[in-house]
Amino acid sequence: MLRKRFAAAIVAAAALIGSATVAAVTSPTAQAATSVPVFDHIVLVMFENHAYSQINGSSSAPYFNSLASQGAKFTQSYAITHPSQPNYLAIFSGSTQGVTNDNCPLSFNKNNIANQLLNNGKTFKSYSEAMPSDGYTGCSSGTYRRKHNAAPDFPNVPASSNVRFSTFPSSGNYASLPTVSYVAPDMCNDMHDCSISTGDTWLKNKMDAYAQWAKTHNSLLIVTFDEDNSASSNHIFTTFVGAHTQVGSFSNQINHYNVLSTIESAYGLAQLNSAAAITNVWN
Fold it and tell me: Model's pTM, two decimal places?
């Protein structure tokens, strides 16, 4: 088993995109990996604009570090580019779609993780904090920003999959979650406009119960960042916590495309880019 894990790590590292600024290469015929567990639920939470060095070991981020100690922490995780919006498009659709700014609104008739799941009998929801109404397509409202929510940029994602975070199930009801959930805290709680400690407290209060539940209910929590603070080569903090996940630090280089490919591989979906799924962290 140990040899297999080392082999998987070597293969994955060789296949990963080496530069954090490389655009995706569309590969619609790519076959999904078979070594990623089939999770009942995956929840992915995106935070904003902080480098790995600002979070890892920081006294301002005790919960981030506690959470990572319960699962797989990726010490060489990178965003794709700057600014924010192309990174959200990348992790949602396997491509930045040629976007190099935060302009709004956008519309792409392209495939994406939500469309893939829905077309294969699975479910998906994008939960956005401070969004004023389910199905909202406006560019901003209060502390909500559409640039941090890729779902409305794709007409093939139904309005019913673009919902307010206030509808996220409470503790005890996590079994009602969709197959895959993307969660966007608001502009304060995602650390864009507020402190690291604010985001750390939000993550603990809003996601710890799910993280603990996931461990014993065949589910997974993914926590990552859209980009760094523009000072650390886009090196970001990423952790996987939940069922089947080995506890430890992993140094194979990954980026948003690898995270997307891992989610796709869990459900036997074709990968929307050329990045390899993360295969060396599972028990």
Answer: 0.89
